[in-house]
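Researcher: Let's run the pair from yesterday's discussion. Sequence first, then tokens, for each.
Model: Starting with the first of the pair.
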Amino acid sequence: MHKAVVGDIAGKKHSKIKFVVYSLSIVIAVGILELITRIQYSEAQFLYLPYYGLSENQQNLLIWQHQPGKNKVGTITTPYPFDIYDSKLGWKVKPNADVKHSKLGLWEVGVKTNSFGFRGNNPKERQKLSDVIRIGIMGASQTFGESVHDDEVYVSLLDNKLHQAEVLNFGVRGYGTDQMLLYYESEAKNYNLNFTILAFAFHHMPRNASSFTFYAKPYFITNENSLNLLGSPVPTEFELFDSDTPKLSMYFLNNSMILRLGLKYFRIISSRQVYNEKNAVWNTTKAIITRFSKTVKENNSQFILLNIEHKHENLEPALIKLANELDIDLINLGPTLRNALNAGISVQILNDNHWSAIGHQIVADALYVHLCRKQLILNC
């Protein structure tokens, strides 16, 4: 009996030692990983990692408030010289801009906008000539042409290919589908568009649920199948500077780069489920596209949904289903872009998600073929 008790005590002591050793091993391993991660990542990269205890909206505001400089409309990183504040939209493109735009070590391009604040030359006049077909393309940075020269943007390329047609670039870097809708309702509909194309991508959806992305913005919530607009008018820079700075807590978690990296990848994985039928973000996005389609039709324009997403193939059936429900035309460029990538074509710029000049050419060609095959545009 005595030996059994002694053995039991020795066993418990051994278990405790093993637990302490395992715990220390984990702490040391995490510490080594933390050290390696800090060597590989800069302090600036550490700043942009998500914080525990803050929503993405709060984090974006916090980063924005701590950026140097004054002209910070439309950005949480480097100020863009062609963004201006807009109380309805958050930001939009500055008219008559003529600037250099670059991403360090990746690309540098010239950006010119016309007197209406569109990239490119169109339109010459607000009023459309009777014998001209006018196409407006609503979108974000891919449509704006973030990483290419003015004449390399797919909107400009399509315009050059079409006879007796004008293609207008309503792309604004960083927009969500919600801002595109508001932009159409407040401005784009006044340009007598025969066709209104909505360029849609997966990453636009999280923006639709946000009040602060690159800058403060309006957003919709769904309420009994209706859309209610919040965050409008959008606060000015001065009002944002004077607003309360989000308070950080959970100091241990937020001072660890590896733990914040873990949070980043957790959010990335979670975001992939936003087009689930039961997801609120997807349902809000569907409601926005539904209203978009209805409003375009009310303005005697034909609505076309353009899928420019190639990474999230699972999104495509949901878009096809929505297009059928709304009885609208869908141009699905997902397979086209994937086929080009699989063939080794440099659709995207290296280390950048934006299209290269080749990528823009592929998109312009695909749009041209679709519009002509369906005889939406004559005399192709």
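Model: Moving on to the second of the pair.
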Amino acid sequence: MLKFIQVSKQYLDDKPALENVSFEIDKGELVLITGPSGSGKTTLLKLLTKELEPSEGEIFFGDQDLGKLKRSKIPYHRRKIGAVFQDYKLLPELNVWENIALALSILGHPDNEIEEKVTDLLKLVGLADKAYLFPHQLSGGEAQRISIARALSTAPQIIFADEPTGNLDAENSLIVAKLLRKINELGTTVIVTTHDPVVIKYLNFAHKMTIDKGTLFDESAKKPVKKAEEVKKAESKEDRDDDRKDHDDGRDDHDDDKEEKTEAKSDKSDKSGASKEPKVKKHWGFFGVFKHKEKSSQPEKPEKNDSHDGHHHDHHHDDHHDHIEVESEDLDEDDKNDQHQDKKDTKSKSDKSKVKKHEEKED
């Protein structure tokens, strides 16, 4: 859902706020990013909302490359992200109800829909009785819960809470941490940056990352995040390997079918006692089909096969060649007899011709 690929952010001549940061967050995850103040946590949020541009690297939100996002589309992109800030950022001139309803009103939602959503959100954060109070009348914990309700008003895909308990005591920090966990359980992806030990302990099951001096360590990383070009190349290679494997499997199946047919034909030929000239066999080579003619004078070496059928086939194959050789010897013997008989007939005719000529002379 969210992917940072070797992202760096440099502020003028200062040290980089982020350096070569890579991580990936799946839809529905609860992510905890820990680190001291000034380590670069807030910069992550500003890069995600396009308030800042990275000096290097790529950021993907879903399938959208944020580096290629048009300026006119940025407001629509920000509606997908609900931001929760350390200092709440509630509008002091509006009461609690109006602070939550403001974004919905700007987006043009009808009044009855706004009323229903605001009521539901106030119940979710446990402050339905504070609807008409102004921000200065709220405690810090209450103000932060109203800030979370406002962030949820547009049904964002991600809630990014940047140090949400930075100004709260331990009791209110735990209340906020429980609320964020509940929101995640309802299906929203939640990212929390904090150095609050109360929050870290309560959310110790989350996908954990640590950031320090601009360098991020993904403690729950399943695999390294690659550049987009590397990902495409890897996917292309996998596709080619799959195609080659399918081709090889198909070729092996074809070879098995041809071998079975050849064995059947050989068995049939042996049973009938036929002594025809060996046929041309087709063999599959690595790059295609080539032909090889069997020589009757040199029987083909039997292929190694542990199965009973393989030995049976080799036995018939040798018998077939022996039969061809014996028959060839018989034919040679018959030819010699015929030649001897022809010579005898020729000599007999010659003798008769001489006798006849001798009788004619005597007459």
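Researcher: Give me one sentence on the second I can quote.
Model: The longest helix spans residues 308-362.
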